[in-house]
Design a protein that fits this description.
about 70% helix, mainly alpha, single chain, ABC transporter involved in vitamin B12 uptake, BtuC
Length: about 350
């Protein structure tokens, strides 16, 4: 029971914040009016608030799980969709869709984003595998540089073909445009996360190295590219609907690993719940801090994520791989840590 204490706490907090999120906005929702079946109140709930809540939850769960998979497969705790060029590649795919198919639908753009994100992530991993001498910092730096190259190409083509304004919706993440009929693509995250849980043990084995995987009879290349494809498709789904959101896939898995260890199957549920709670909390803050106006979720997560990341680095410098112990919750997970 004690081993599941953190999971239950995260679940309760996520449910509470979900209820709060439904009633936060420019137009007030009245519970008695909703229960009484008032048409205007129900329309606001079903067309705007509920779709937004579902999009926020899927985004938090998806980006956190994508970051966890990439960190395990790349054997580096600083790899994420942001530092692995996945987000930049997805944005480049959306630009290609707008250039070659100006009247493309959301799903058409998603196909381009999927293909570009998968290809960009594969190239990144292929490149770092061929670096003979690399440390924990060098790998994400390579990913950041590769992502900046792709981002520079995206900006160049945007200015050249006057697509800057059209691309602005995908360069900064926000949930203000999430309405019924425009967010359902994020539901694709659900089966992808389930698939990640099914193959969690395989990802753990591959994260221990190619020789170790082959000795256990696991097809290293197949599992590696399957995991990267899952992470890339999750990221592309979020970018197409919401836009670019950094830090989630980097911060959330590391913070959960500080309490629960590094095993994917043991931390996947907690990572998903904490990711949903983290994004949901940031979204509520963005809606109330300068109400009735709204701050982009990318800005709030960027500020809070930066502070958490600095704290994480300071903890690692002082304690190394040692996990945080919270009485009975910490026993048994002290073997885990935040780094390989």
């Amino acid at each position: 029971m004690k081993s599941h204490l953190l999971t239950m706490l995260l679940l309760v907090c996520t449910v509470v914040m979900s209820v709060v999120s439904l009633f936060v906005g420019v137009i007030d929702l009245d519970l008695s009016a909703l229960l009484g079946g008032e048409t205007e109140q129900l329309e606001i709930l079903l067309i705007s608030r509920l779709p937004r809540l579902l999009a926020v939850l899927c985004t938090g769960v998806g980006m956190s799980v994508a970051g966890l998979i990439m960190q395990q497969l790349c054997m580096n705790k600083f790899v994420s969709p942001t530092t692995g060029a996945t987000i930049s590649s997805a944005q480049f795919g959306i630009l290609l869709a707008l250039l070659f198919m100006p009247s493309s639908t959301l799903w058409s753009r998603a196909i381009f984003a999927f293909a570009a994100a998968i290809l960009g992530t594969w190239i990144f991993v292929w490149f770092i595998q061929r670096i003979q001498f690399k440390d924990v910092v060098m790998v994400p730096l390579v990913g950041i540089m590769f992502g900046n190259v792709i981002g520079g190409l995206t900006n160049y083509l945007s200015y050249k073909y006057e697509m800057t304004q059209a691309m602005s919706s995908w360069l900064v993440g926000h949930f203000s445009m999430v309405l019924r009929g425009r967010y359902e693509l994020v539901y694709l995250i659900v089966p992808l996360v389930i698939l990640a849980f099914v193959f969690a043990n395989h990802f753990n084995i591959v994260g221990m190295g190619k020789d170790f995987s082959q000795n256990l009879g696991v097809n290293y290349n197949l599992v590696l590219f399957m995991g990267l494809t899952i992470a890339a498709m999750i990221t592309a789904s979020v970018v197409v609907v919401v836009g670019s959101i950094s830090y989630i896939g980097l911060i959330v898995p590391n913070l959960v690993a500080m309490f629960k260890g590094d095993k994917i199957r043991g931390t996947l549920v907690d990572t998903a719940l904490f990711g949903a709670l983290f994004v949901l909390s940031c979204d509520v803050i963005g809606r109330v801090v300068i109400a009735p106006y709204e701050l982009p979720i990318e800005l709030i997560i960027g500020i809070i994520g930066s502070l958490l990341f600095i704290g994480l680095l300071m903890y690692r410098l002082r304690h190394g791989r040692k996990a945080v112990s919270l009485g009975g919750l910490g026993r048994g997970v002290a073997r885990g840590g935040v780094g390989k």
